[in-house]
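Researcher: We plan to redesign the surface later, but first we want a full-length starting point. Tokens attached.
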């Protein structure tokens, strides 16, 4: 690999030509990824790709005038420390914020490259072209805003906000809520069965800890393997699995941690059980609120479903433990 300082003017132009071509393809990939979810923003990236193509034609015209039609086989990957593009565009269902941030990063890198290349150029025409491209790339972010203003009408913004909310619910709220419900409810029976069977806070804590971690691992893998997100738009399966597994574990640990009250304290078991019961009540009402806030479930219906189910599981655990 060559260092940037070793590149000739001919090689600098060749790298710039190939870079503009690749950046145009990246923007088109972004546009394709966004077309189904954010059509107005997809149009913005299509026009940005067209601008990159125009830059390539400007560079290619200058190269042919100066060096002829044969391009040396050198790309930016052949230059040390030069404009490494992160291959995030290969991942589908990226958030709009992630794509815009990556585009901004690309434009900043391109502007710096053209500024440094212009400083090294000795040919007046090449120096002027590279300097102009540096200023164009520097203002690309502002131009992207102008493109957004022309394409993102109030109606389009409203549609994209609705889509963004739906994607947030699909990718984060649903797996998190499923995990929280499972962790909060399914661990009640083994935890309180152990509590009333042993009347030992420490033993109960160990059972609750094992149940919470085990449920988290199980739910995490189940969520990750249930859907790859390609058709449903639910995002990365491993991200969803991680969210679901974490929330499952937290849901179980919430009413497990009170049993860390030392057994040596007077009435330690009943104090811990009372605190755990209060935590269970808070967890179930929190789940009901999340379902109302994000899943459009009437609050009283959500409370009835969640609290009733939790009370039945809790009673089962107490009855089994006290038998």
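Model: Full-length starting sequence:
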């Amino acid at each position: 690999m060559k260092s940037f300082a070793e590149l000739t003017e001919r090689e600098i132009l060749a790298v710039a030509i190939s870079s503009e071509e690749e950046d145009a393809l990246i923007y088109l990939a972004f546009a394709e990824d966004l077309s189904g979810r954010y059509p107005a923003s997809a149009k913005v990236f299509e026009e940005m790709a067209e601008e990159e193509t125009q830059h390539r034609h400007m560079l290619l015209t200058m190269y042919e005038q100066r060096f002829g039609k044969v391009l040396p086989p050198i790309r930016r990957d052949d230059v040390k420390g030069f404009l490494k593009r992160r291959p995030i565009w290969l991942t589908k269902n990226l958030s709009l914020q992630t794509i815009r941030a990556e585009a901004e990063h690309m434009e900043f890198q391109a502007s710096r490259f053209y500024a440094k290349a212009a400083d090294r150029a000795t040919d007046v025409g090449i120096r002027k072209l590279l300097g102009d491209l540096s200023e164009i790339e520097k203002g690309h972010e502002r131009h992207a805003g102008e493109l957004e203003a022309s394409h993102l009408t109030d109606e389009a913004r409203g549609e994209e906000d609705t889509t963004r909310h739906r994607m947030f619910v699909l990718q984060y709220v649903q797996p998190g809520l499923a995990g929280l419900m499972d962790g909060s409810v399914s661990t009640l029976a083994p935890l309180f069965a152990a509590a009333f069977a042993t009347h030992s806070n420490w033993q109960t804590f160990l059972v609750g800890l094992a149940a919470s971690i085990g449920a988290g691992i199980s739910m995490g893998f189940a969520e990750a393997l249930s859907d790859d997100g390609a058709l449903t738009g639910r995002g990365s399966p491993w991200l969803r699995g991680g969210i679901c597994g974490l929330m499952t574990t937290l849901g179980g640990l919430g009413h497990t941690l009170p049993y860390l009250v030392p057994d040596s304290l007077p009435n330690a078991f009943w104090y811990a059980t009372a605190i755990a019961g209060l935590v269970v009540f808070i967890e179930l009402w929190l789940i009901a609120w999340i379902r109302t806030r994000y899943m459009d479930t009437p609050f009283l219906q959500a409370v009835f479903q969640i609290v009733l189910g939790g009370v039945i599981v809790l009673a089962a655990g107490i009855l089994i433990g006290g038998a």
